Amino acid sequence: YSSAFLTATSIFTLITFSLSTHLGKRFGERKMMGIAFFLSALAYSMVYPFGPGHIPKIEWVPIDNVTITNATEVTGCSWQNEWCLTQKRLNVYQFVAANAILLFSYPLAVVLIMSRTTKILGPHPQGTAMGILTGVGSLARTIGPAIFSTIFQHYGPPAVSVVMVCVCSCGALTILVSQPVLATFDSRISRLNAEIFT
């Protein structure tokens, strides 16, 4: 099931990447960027485990000269994490729906942010700005797993879900507040010319 799920998500993401530019032109890039961040926040709120039931615990047995004859994959929640004792299950349909939303919103946001950055800069050299944008993304992908794995280990999945909802909501609010700043170079020049010659 895992390989089929990963294949389906890859195809879905590829389709979203190809549609992002068309959606930006049709509905407006700034509006679609805000929608993408809002949808990401929604997706992360949907992976908050509400149940029903609790997740299974891993049976802990000290390994000392043990011969495994009928090996099976060990699943469940590690006994070392205190939150495992009270952690609710995540419904599989809830998980799939959240992933579907995230697989649409994340590629949409990435493409539109890159596209909008080039349009804001206009004819100015874009290498530095695009390098900074890529570097910030790379830094987030480097330190993000360390931060979130620590949060996960100490507080469990609900804490990670809440933090990600807050981050994506801040992104959506930032885009909403900074709409004038996100105007393209051409529109700023046109507005400036209109102010000068009228």
Please supply descriptive tags for the structure shown above.
198 residues, mainly alpha, elongated
What order do the helices and strands come in, and which of them pair?
Layout: H1 2-27, H2 29-46, H3 92-121, H4 127-155, H5 157-177, H6 185-196
Structure description:
This protein is mainly alpha-helical and 198 residues long. Helices cover 69% and strands 0% of the residues. It has six helices and no strands. Helix 1 runs antiparallel to helix 2 and helix 2 runs antiparallel to helix 5. The protein starts with a helix and ends with a helix. The model has no long low-confidence stretch (mean pLDDT 82).
Number of helices: 6
Instruction: Give the strand content.
Output: under 5%
Q: Major sheet, described briefly? A: none
From the spread of the alpha carbons, the general shape counts as elongated
Distance N terminus to C terminus?
A: 65 Å
Low-pLDDT stretches are none
The overall average pLDDT, rounded, is: 82
**SSE order:** HHHHHH
The helix content is 55-70%
Helix/strand-derived category reads: mainly alpha
Strand runs, count:
0
The radius of gyration is 22 Å
